[in-house]
Amino acid sequence: MIEKLCLRFHAAARQLRHRHGDRPTLTIADEYDVQDLLHTILRLHFDDVRPEEHSPSYAGRGSRIDFLLKAERLVVEVKKTRPSLKAAALGEELIVDRARYQAHPGCDTLVCFVYDPDGLINNPRGIEDDLEGVQGTLRTRVIIAPRNEPR
């Protein structure tokens, strides 16, 4: 379900641009905008969506989880590409996130949703393949969308 929602996220974001009577709309300009729209979409499908949960510290730094689906024991981490967050920096951030969530007692699955509307990631499948899998008790799924190549 989460995978389908992430893969269709861009279609929802595009639809928001076309409002009746040219009414103002939500513009997806940064990571917080992605989080806001994804939070709305998640609430349509899950009863208990907890935004901004604290995660255990890692390497001396604490952080906040974007979304915790408590009953599903699933964390959704959201990223949006930008000129300063391309493949190398993105990979490094996701590696740190994965290590951080391995220590979270309520997380068995980590879904990293990377919204890349401008196609800044040249090889999305490579990043997904490199970072997905099971480490310890944590299963990680990376979804970079939208993308034009066949999956």
Silhouette: globular
Strand order of the largest sheet: 1-2-3-4-6-5
Please count the helical segments. Answer: 4
Residue stretches low in confidence (pLDDT < 50, at least 5 long) are none
Helix/sheet category: alpha/beta
Number of domains: 1
Indicate the multimeric state: single chain
Could you describe the largest sheet, including whether it forms a barrel? 6 strands, mixed
Q: End-to-end distance, in Å?
A: 17 Å
| C-alpha Rg (nearest Å) | 15 Å
Q: What is the total tally of β strands?
A: 6
Strand/helix succession: HHEEEHEHEE
Global mean pLDDT: 89
The helix fraction, in percent, is: 25-40%
Strand percentage lies at 25-35%
Characterization of the model:
With 151 residues, the chain is of the alpha/beta class. The chain has one domain. Helices cover 36% and strands 29% of the residues. It contains 4 helices and 6 strands, in the order ααβββαβαββ. It has helices at 2-16, 31-45, 87-102, 124-131; strands at residues 49-58, 61-69, 74-80, 109-115, 133-135, 138-145. The protein has a 6-stranded mixed beta sheet, sandwiched between helices. A hairpin with a 4-residue loop joins β2 (61-69) and β3. α1 crosses α2. The mean pLDDT is 89.
